[in-house]
Structures are given as structure tokens and as C-alpha cells.
Design goal:
By secondary structure, the protein is of the alpha/beta class. It is built from ten helices and 15 strands.
């Protein structure tokens, strides 16, 4: 190995509002030597998610440790094994782990999962958030043939795949929500959404009534707030509502939690199921999703909308732009 130093991104300060570039610092540090039972990985790609904004707070409200000021951030990454003494991993193996935000990662071997380098047509596809999409569609909203499905936050890394997966499960009408007309047009033209409601273009409930005149059978909610309230207002009898994310709170400008008014009697009368569902309770879906996604990418039935930024120095910008809603789909940094 010729590299003796590498770069990592550390949290310089906790945010008091939106993500800004000065909250991060890039530091050059020595490449460590792995000991017995450890693996040294040269990271090649990392994925970003809105939850990372929550992890920048000291008390984040999610079951993931917060980032520490002065320490490198962490997150989903893939890379090639450099050395792994005393383990069943070999140099050159492709692995995934949770020590992104650095060009090299040193971790215990059991924290690295070997991946099939030939499965995905693009290794970055291993960083998709499709397993969350599959979980919410199949196990949360229980989408069935003939359903009208509403996906909130449809232009994000989860939503762009949730709409596609809903169609695979037989949905006949798929409606999304997003923050701009440009993204709405792309969701319809490129990703098969039938209609899209736009945040800020008028009351969401009014837009949704026009898009779903026969009501909604299944909801994949990644946002909360006004969009979830609108979905509940239009939910048909026996509708299933999966609460998969809370972007309205995670990306609020002042850090406040966005409340949702729920008419419990109305939900009771219509026999509506409201279910919070998180991937850490459904880890068995990860290999299933990888096989499904690889097959779909190869035969053209699924696509991987994403933005790809080059170089670890672009990682702070990538997270800032993700939280600002600059991109359609996932956001990946390639090292």
C-alpha cells in the first residue's frame, strides 16, 4: 500500500439551523495498521441520507448514535479490503460497513459484510435506500394489486424507489409529493408516477383530492406533517399507512418537531391501519432487496436515480445539497 495518510471528514460544530459547509472539517491522518481480527478497507463510495442531519444534533431522537464534535462522521459505505489478518476476508474483497466519511476505514471484521462484486451493474447501487422502500411498500403499507398509493417525499433516495416498487406490487395508480414542478415533471416522465402534488403550490389536501378522486388505499409516508394529514383525510376504508420517515421534522429550519393532528374516531370508523416501521427491525430484507434491485437494473424494470459527487472533499456539500432538496434520488460520494 503506497498511501500512508488519508482524509476523513469530522464534525467541527453542531448546527443551529440548516447544514452549512463550515460545520465540517477535513483532516489528513495516518493510515492505521489492522490487528488480528480487524479489516482495513479503502472506501470507494458512501451514501448520504437525511437522517445525517439529525445525527449532527447532540440529542437526535433516532436509535443511532449522534456524531461527536471533533470526531469523524459515520454512515453507509462500500470499499475494497486492503488487509484483514486472521479473518476470512481477503485483499480486494468488496465489503459494506458503516464507517463512511473517510477514505480508509479500520473496523472489526464482523462489522464488514462481504458483497458480490458481480451482482450489481454499478457497485454504488449497494448504497441505495431501496431496502427501506421495499420494507415500507411490502410490510408497512402492504400494497396490493389495484391499489392507489401515495408516496410522500417521492423525489428522495427512498421515494424514487418506493414508487417503482409499488408498481411491482400491483399498484394501478401511484401519486407522489415533492417540492418543485421540475421534480414533479421528472417523477412523472422518468419514474412512472401518475400524478404529483407539490409542496407550496397550494393546500396539499386539495391537490391530493384532485390527484386521487377515488381516495387512497396505501400510504408510504416519508415526511409527516401536512402531507400525512392530507393522506389520512383521503384514506379509504381499510387503508394501510406506513410511517417510514419524518423529513418534515428532520429538515425543519428551526429544529422543531412537526406535529400531526389525528382524528382517532375517523381512523377507527374507516378501519385504517397506521404503522411506524423502521429498517433496523427488518434487516432480513437487505439481501432480498439487493437481488431484486440487481435483476431490475439489468432488465430495465428498475432504475437508480442518484447524484454522484466526486471526492471526499465534496461530502459536506453533498449533505448540504441533499438537505436543501437539490437532487432527485439518492446522493452518493465516490472517492
Amino acid at each position: 500500500m503506497t498511501n500512508r495518510t488519508y482524509r476523513e471528514v469530522r464534525l467541527a460544530a453542531r448546527p443551529t439551523g440548516p447544514v452549512t459547509d463550515d460545520l465540517f472539517e477535513i483532516v489528513e491522518v495516518p493510515v492505521p495498521e489492522p490487528g488480528p481480527g480487524q479489516v482495513l478497507v479503502r472506501n470507494t463510495h458512501m451514501g448520504l441520507g437525511a437522517v445525517m442531519r439529525s445525527l449532527m444534533d447532540e440529542h437526535n431522537g433516532v436509535p443511532i448514535p449522534s456524531y461527536e464534535v471533533g470526531a469523524p462522521l459515520h454512515g453507509h459505505a462500500i470499499g475494497e479490503v486492503v488487509a484483514a489478518p486472521g479473518t476470512d476476508l481477503n485483499p480486494g474483497d468488496l465489503v459494506e460497513h458503516q464507517l463512511g466519511w473517510r477514505e480508509y476505514a479500520l473496523l472489526d471484521a464482523d462489522a464488514a459484510t462481504r458483497l458480490d462484486p458481480d451482482l450489481m451493474p454499478d457497485p454504488a447501487a449497494y448504497l441505495s435506500q431501496g431496502s427501506t422502500a421495499l420494507m415500507g411498500i411490502e410490510r408497512g403499507a402492504e400494497v396490493r394489486p389495484g391499489d392507489t398509493v401515495f408516496v410522500t417525499g417521492a423525489a428522495g433516495g427512498v421515494g424514487t424507489l418506493a414508487g417503482q416498487v409499488a408498481r411491482q406490487f400491483g399498484a394501478t395508480r401511484v401519486i407522489g409529493s415533492t417540492g418543485s414542478q421540475q421534480k414533479a415533471d421528472r417523477l412523472i416522465k422518468e419514474l412512472g408516477y401518475d400524478a404529483v402534488v407539490i409542496r407550496g403550490a397550494g393546500p396539499i389536501e386539495e391537490q391530493l383530492r384532485e390527484a386521487a378522486p377515488d381516495g387512497i388505499d396505501a400510504v408510504f409516508d416519508n415526511v409527516g406533517g401536512e402531507q400525512l394529514e392530507a393522506a389520512l383525510a383521503l384514506a379509504n376504508r381499510n387503508a394501510r399507512v406506513a410511517i417510514v420517515g419524518a423529513l418534515a421534522s428532520q429538515l425543519s429550519q428551526d429544529g422543531t418537531t412537526v406535529k400531526v393532528a389525528v382524528d382517532s374516531l375517523s381512523l377507527l370508523i374507516r378501519s385504517i391501519t397506521l404503522r411506524g416501521i423502521a429498517l433496523y427491525n427488518h434487516r432480513d430484507l437487505l439481501p432480498q432487496w439487493n437481488r431484486r434491485f440487481a435483476a431490475g437494473l439489468r432488465d430495465g424494470t428498475l432504475t437508480f436515480p442518484h447524484a454522484r459527487l466526486q471526492g471526499i472533499e465534496q461530502a459536506p456539500r453533498a449533505l448540504r445539497e441533499l438537505t436543501e432538496g437539490r437532487h432527485l434520488g439518492a446522493v452518493v460520494v465516490e472517492f
